Amino acid sequence: MNTSIKKHNMDVIKRPRITEKAAIASEKGTYVFEVTGNATKAAIKAAVKELYKVTPVSVNVAKNPVKKTYVRGKKGTKGGVVKAYVTLKKGDKIELA
């Protein structure tokens, strides 16, 4: 495999999302990752397969937009995020923590 493709696969996934909702989903075989904004489902699938040595069955992507906030008289923004829900083959697990 080309080294530039390997590097690209590792740059697709930013970090796993460690939340209560993600923990419940991981018990059912679906894991949640934060990914780059321009990541495709095929790239996410390849990156998970390479990084964690598991077989992804499906990938769903959800985009949460940037939101305006107002705290203590100051305006600001909450950063948007792109999440990937990766469902693994039955029997595969990823140890995140």
Per CATH, the class reads Alpha Beta
Helix count from the secondary structure assignment: 3
Spatial order of strands in the largest sheet? 1-2-6-3
Spans where pLDDT lies below 50 across 5 or more residues:
none
Q: Averaging pLDDT over every residue, what do you get?
A: 89
Helix and strand string, N-terminal first?
Answer: HEHEHEEEE
Instruction: Provide the helix percentage.
Output: 25-40%
CATH topology: Alpha-Beta Plaits
Radius of gyration: 15 Å
Largest sheet: 4 strands, antiparallel
Distance from first to last alpha carbon: 29 Å
- The total strand number stands at 6
Q: What CATH architecture would you give?
A: 2-Layer Sandwich
Structure commentary:
The protein is of the alpha+beta class and 97 residues long. It has one domain: Alpha-Beta Plaits (2-Layer Sandwich), CATH 3.30.70. The protein is 31% helix and 38% strand. The protein is built from 3 helices and 6 strands; from the N terminus they run H-E-H-E-H-E-E-E-E. The strands form 2 sheets. It has a 4-stranded antiparallel sheet with strand order 1-2-6-3, with helices on both faces. The longest helix is centred in the middle third of the chain and has 12 residues, at 41-52. The chain is elongated.
